Amino acid sequence: MPDPSDHFLARSFSALQENLRRSGPAASVGYTLIGAILLLGGLGHLVDRWAATATPWFLLTGMLLGLVVGFYELAKTIWKK
Amino acid sequence: MSAQHQEEATPHVGEHAADVEHASEGFDAGATIIEHVTNSSLEHPLVHLEPIAGIDLSVTKHVMMMWLVAGLLFVVITMVTRAYLNQDRRVPSGFMNGLEWLVQSIRDSVVLPNVGAKYVNTWTPLLLTMFVFILAANIVGLIPMFEALGLVDRFVLGNGHDAESLINGVLHGGTTVTANYNVTAALATITFFAIIIAGTMAHGFVKHWKNLVPSGLAKPIYVLLIPIEIMGMFVKPFALTMRLAANMTGGHIAILSILSLVFLFTEMFESAAVGMGVGVAMSLPLAVGISALEIIVVMVQAYVFTLLTSVFIGMAINVHH
C-alpha cells in the first residue's frame, strides 16, 4: 500500500499550509499597515465630528499616528530575526 | 452610535429592492447587491423583540444565520463524537476521521509551532473553535440555499413576496455572517483578550505588560515606544476584523455584480435574448470561476485568522528580545 502522504493532494495541501504559515506574519503586517491608518484615522474623524472642528486636525493626527504605528509593526516583523 | 445614525449610514435599500427589478424605474444593481451582502435593516428584522436596556435585540438576517451555523456545528460535532465514543472499537471512520484529522493538523501545524509545547493544549480548543466556526460560517454563506428555497417559494408554491412573514424574511437570502464587521470584531475581541490572558498566564500580569516593549533601551525612547505599542495592541485585532470581513464581502460583491450584467444588458438593449446571451457567454463562466476561487478564499481566510491568532498568542508567550 502506498504511503498516503505521498498522494499529490496531500503533498500540495501540506505545501499550501507551509506557505501560508510562512507568509502569515507578512499578511498580518500588510493589513496592520492599512488597519492602523484606518482605525486611528477613523477615531480622529469621530473626534473631529464630535468636537465639530473646522479643520480636521484630529483626522490628520490620527492618520499620521496610524502611519507611525503601522510602520513600527512592519519594522518589528522584518527585523525580528 | 444611535440607531438614527445607523439609519443614515446604510443607504435606503429597503426590503423591496427586488421590486425595483420589476418596476418601471429599472434595475438598480447597486441597491440589489448591497441588499444581499448587508444585514437586514433594524426596521424590518426577522423576529422583532422589545429592546432590553435600550439595545435592540431583534433577530436580523445575520443573527439568524449565525445561530444556524453555531447550532449546526454543535449538533453535528456532538453527534459524531458521541457516536464515536459509544463505539466498541475506537477506530474513527468517515466524518469522525476527517474531524480527527482537522483537530490534529490544527494542533500540530498551527498551534504547536507558534505557541510552543508547554501551552499547546491550553490554546488549541479556542483556536480550533475559531477555525471551525469561521470555516462553517464562510461555507454556509457560500451556499445559496435560502435563495433556492426562495425561488421554490415564489415560483413553485406561488407565494407573493410582500408578505411580512418570518418565512418570507428568511427567504430573502442567506448571507455570510463573517462578512459582517460586528461578527468579526467580536471574534477579534476574543483574540485581543486571549493575547493578554496568554501573556499573563505565562509571565504574570505585570511582566506581560513589561514584555510588550523591548527592554534595555534609552529612557526617552520609551516615551515614544509605549504609546505606539499600546496602539499596536488594538490595531492588530482590528486588522484581523477587517481582513476577514472584507474578504468575505468582496467575493460576494464580485459574483453579484457579474450576474447583474445579465439584467443590465437586458435593460440596455430591451431584449431578454441579449441579456441571456451575455449571461451564458460571460456572466456564468466568470461567476463559476469566482465561486471556485471563493472556495479557496473561504478556507484560507479561516486558516489565516486562526494562524494569526496563534502567532499573536505565541508572541505574548515566547518573548525574545
Structure, explained:
The complex is a heterodimer of chains A (81) and B (321). Chain A has 81 residues and is mostly helical. Chain A has a domain of 55 residues. In chain A, 81% of the residues lie in helices and 0% in strands. Chain A has 2 helices and no strands. In chain A, helix 1 runs antiparallel to helix 2. Chain B is mainly alpha-helical and 321 residues long. Chain B has one domain. In chain B, 73% of the residues lie in helices and 0% in strands. Chain B is built from 12 helices and no strands. In chain B, helix 5 crosses helix 12, helix 9 crosses helix 10 and helix 9 runs parallel beside helix 12. The longest helix of chain B is centred in the last third of the chain and has 51 residues. Chain B is globular, with a radius of gyration of 24 Å. The two termini of chain B are 41 Å apart. Classes of the chains: A mainly alpha (81), B mainly alpha (321). The interface between A and B is medium-sized, with 22 and 21 residues.
Number of helices of chain A: 2
Major sheet characteristics of chain B: none
Q: Whole-Å distance between the termini of chain A?
A: 43 Å
Query: Hey, roughly how much beta strand do the residues of chain B contain?
Result: under 5%
Order of helices and strands of chain B: HHHHHHHHHHHH
User: SS-based structural class of chain B?
Assistant: mainly alpha
